[in-house]
Amino acid sequence: MMSENHAIVFGASGLIGWAMVDQLLAPYPAPGTFASVAAVANRAIDLAEAHWPEPGGDRPDLRLVSGVDLRRDAKSLADTLKQQVPSVNKITHVYYFVFTSVDHDHEEEVAVNKKMLQNVIDAVSSLSQNLKFVVFPGGTRGYGIYIPGGTFSAPLTEDMVNNLPADYEETLAYPQFRKMLADACRGKSWTWCEICPDAVIGFTPNGSQFSLALHWAQYLSLYAYNHGIGPRTKDGPSNNAGSAAVEVPFPGVSAGYNSLCSPVSASTIAQLAIYAGQNPERCGDGRLFNIADSDTPAKMGDLWPHLAAWFGLVGTGPEGRSDTDLLPSEYVERHQAVFGEHGLEKAVKGGVGAGRKQLDSVGSWLTFDRQLSLDRLRETGFAERKDPVAGWLEAFGMFRKAGLIL
């Protein structure tokens, strides 16, 4: 029987959006869940290099729409979707994974992001009378982690977002998203939920502005190469047999190395988004759900040695770093010509962009426990779990496959 579900993913070139399309096409959780997927992106995507599942078999139909600027207006967006998405009048699920950062102007950032989501809801609502569910991601910024030392004592629970300092809440788009969606769905047949991750670990074929996994992967890749360790084979590093172990200290401080956190694979977020849309009675009505790969908190001190080992390095604590050691972005900038020398021009063009300085400081300013409670999530019946290390290593493998690292 042909599925009556049709998904549209906004932000398909981004960290979560790419995984969302990938999981819909997989198909997760089972064949026939969706009949079609429309992948909408601002940045151009070469479908031949997207690394999504190939057509055929049980894969839903895919329509890629690139070059879409959501900041314009709802009518322009509706016209574009009507022209380029054959099943636009059948759309049942909106997966919205778009966020635009505006440096040093939180008021403008909130306004821009609220307008983009409003345009999406207005456009899709005008085109499809079959809309059932909308999903968007928040984040631990919504728990006040940008306030030095954090705002709440961990584990962080979803009800805490209602108790943020007023001046801090004004800097966030998420509360505005909630109010807007609550108003938009009133009296309608569709509903929505919000998903809250901490650090998102995943892959994008064109790089990313804020991918910690790619940031560290390029750093460790170049670090290993410069210390005589060649790219991995199927069985491990290729040309460092018998050589002395090469240590790479964690780029941060001891408190950052040992604080508790809840990393999550982008694929896990996508799986929850699909699950929520298929279970509106459990997950709708504007509910907020924390998400992580594991119910057990992690420490960078536990993860870092495994990440370094994938590159043939020995990951150690931050005690080995000196004040003269380059930060990851500085190291990549100094040595990125190596990528070009090995024909990896994409690694130079598709690395981490404007967010690299913020990512440099992750291990130095996130020095407090910020793990997420998954109790509310588990009450819905969503049971997916994953070793947090596995998500990182899967991303590393995809980066190498895509030519983003050595």
Automatic annotation (TrEMBL):
<dbReference type="InterPro" id="IPR036291">
    <property type="entry name" value="NAD(P)-bd_dom_sf"/>
</dbReference>
<dbReference type="Pfam" id="PF22917">
    <property type="entry name" value="PRISE"/>
</dbReference>
<protein>
    <recommendedName>
        <fullName>PRISE-like Rossmann-fold domain-containing protein</fullName>
    </recommendedName>
</protein>
<feature type="domain" description="PRISE-like Rossmann-fold">
    <location>
        <begin position="7"/>
        <end position="404"/>
    </location>
</feature>
<dbReference type="InterPro" id="IPR055222">
    <property type="entry name" value="PRISE-like_Rossmann-fold"/>
</dbReference>
